[in-house]
């Protein structure tokens, strides 16, 4: 992974090229104070402070300064320095006024590359661009957020042939920090987590399903559980997806990537919690042993589930994991999943759908979303739609026969496996970008991660 710690350093008076940030409201006054040759150069380049992500080089003898246009100088966004970090020559830079704050994230991530599958890197960087900041105490946090985001991106971008349940297990084991890791598989999984076992039983040898758990922190601290959907590849099962729908299904473990990244942030920040991470890791494959539409499977909780659609597999594996998480009596459960196309139809690719069974929890997450500029949008747990999951044969079906309210009915299915007494938030996230933006390349991405971590930081502050 990129060495983010080398790309941002504390200000100790070292030499650094200045970056002047301007916005459309302040550009004219700023330009009046510049030398005539600067004004002429900016005019020649039609730089007027109004174009987001634009920048210009101001020569200074054998060196130069930089002027960059941002939306609001007084409130820098996480991504307003990303274009500069990706485009400037190698060297050390500092803002001419103020510190980068949350904009440090974009500076770091703009220099991250995932070149594991290139014989020769596509874009050879010119060299590191180092940012100097006066906020020395915040450097570690900037680096941790960048590492967590890059972890999500790298895991999601890894092809399914190179990232199966065993590789997700290893990624959890690599989290370290003195955490205890347990894995349930084979006959024990069939007995204890029958929904997880059913979804993954058609996978090839070496890609068998498993429930991966990590526990960390002092037992007397508040217990929280983080659950992530780990479908390493989703063919749709016997309800086979079309080719167009299967092309991106390597990203169906995006929930697991988010959950692992969040767990690593919690451990790195040493939040005073007893952390329980649960990742049901499976491959939804097709074989003679695949589970079938119409099958009835008994869940860990004891509820019998009729399989209406084998392509609604994510909620099945999450159901057993959520029930197991609830057995530990946590005061909070958070789950991430690339669960429904319906959420994308409703909210598009950038807005994870958030469902919560507690209004205060939902409001805290909304505030954290605004603070971090990591958007979320609350959707309703609408009880009347629970009727859409009725089964004539079993306690409930795993999908609705209606084409409407797909993300809500999926959340209502999960709600059956979470006790009303436990605060719970469910995030139906895309974990992907269809097009590139500064600091955010096309491919896997963390959506909702920073917002949830900010909520946890505020709820469980370090003493």
From TrEMBL:
Transmembrane segments: none annotated. Pfam families: Peptidase_M17, Peptidase_M17_N_1. GO terms for cellular component: cytoplasm. Residues 309-316 form the Cytosol aminopeptidase domain. Keywords: Aminopeptidase, Hydrolase, Manganese, Protease. One of its GO terms (biological process) is proteolysis. InterPro entries: Leucine_aapep/pepB, Macro_dom-like, Peptidase_M17_C, Peptidase_M17_N_1. The keyword Thylakoid does not apply. GO terms for molecular function: manganese ion binding; metalloaminopeptidase activity. Belongs to the peptidase M17 family. This is Leucyl aminopeptidase family protein. It comes from Sphingomonas lutea.
């Amino acid at each position: 992974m990129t060495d983010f710690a080398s790309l941002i350093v504390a200000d100790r008076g070292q030499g650094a090229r200045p970056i002047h940030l301007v916005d459309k409201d302040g550009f004219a006054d700023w330009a009046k104070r510049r030398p005539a040759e600067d004004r002429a150069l900016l005019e020649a380049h039609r730089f007027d402070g109004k174009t987001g992500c634009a920048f210009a080089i101001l020569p200074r003898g054998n060196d130069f300064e930089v002027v960059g246009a941002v939306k609001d100088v007084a409130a820098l966004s996480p991504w307003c320095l990303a274009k500069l970090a990706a485009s400037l020559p190698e060297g050390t830079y500092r803002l001419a006024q103020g510190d980068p704050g949350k904009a440090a994230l974009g500076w770091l991530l703009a220099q991250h590359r995932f070149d594991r599958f290139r014989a020769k890197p596509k874009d050879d960087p010119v060299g590191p661009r180092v940012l100097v900041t006066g906020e020395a105490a915040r450097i570690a946090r900037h680096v941790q957020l960048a590492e967590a985001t890059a972890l999500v991106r790298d895991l999601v971008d890894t092809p399914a042939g190179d990232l199966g349940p065993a590789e997700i297990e290893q990624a959890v084991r690599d989290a370290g920090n003195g955490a205890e890791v347990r894995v349930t598989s084979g006959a024990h999984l069939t007995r204890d987590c029958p929904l997880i076992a059913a979804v993954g039983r058609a996978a090839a040898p070496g890609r068998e399903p498993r429930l991966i758990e990590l526990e960390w922190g002092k037992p007397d601290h508040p217990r929280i559980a983080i659950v992530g959907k780990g479908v390493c590849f989703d063919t749709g099962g016997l309800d086979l997806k079309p080719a167009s729908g299967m092309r991106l299904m390597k990203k169906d473990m995006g929930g697991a990537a988010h959950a692992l990244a969040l767990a690593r942030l919690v451990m790195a920040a040493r939040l005073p919690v007893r952390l329980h991470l649960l990742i049901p890791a499976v491959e939804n494959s097709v074989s003679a042993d695949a589970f079938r539409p119409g099958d009835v499977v008994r869940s860990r909780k004891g509820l019998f589930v009729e399989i209406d659609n084998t392509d609604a597999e994510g909620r099945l594996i999450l159901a057993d994991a959520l029930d197991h998480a609830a057995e530990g009596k946590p005061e909070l459960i958070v789950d991430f999943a690339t669960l429904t196309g319906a959420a994308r139809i409703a909210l598009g690719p950038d807005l994870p759908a958030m469902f919560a069974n507690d209004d205060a929890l939902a409001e805290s997450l909304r505030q954290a979303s605004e603070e971090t500029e990591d958007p979320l949008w609350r959707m309703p747990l609408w009880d009347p739609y629970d009727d859409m999951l009725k089964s004539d044969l079993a306690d409930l079906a795993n999908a609705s026969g209606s084409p409407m309210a797909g993300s809500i009915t999926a959340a209502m299915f999960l709600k059956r496996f979470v006790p009303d007494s436990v605060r719970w938030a469910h995030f139906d996230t895309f974990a992907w970008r269809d097009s590139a933006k500064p600091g955010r390349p096309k491919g896997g991405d963390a959506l909702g991660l920073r917002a949830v971590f900010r909520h946890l930081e505020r709820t469980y502050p370090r003493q």
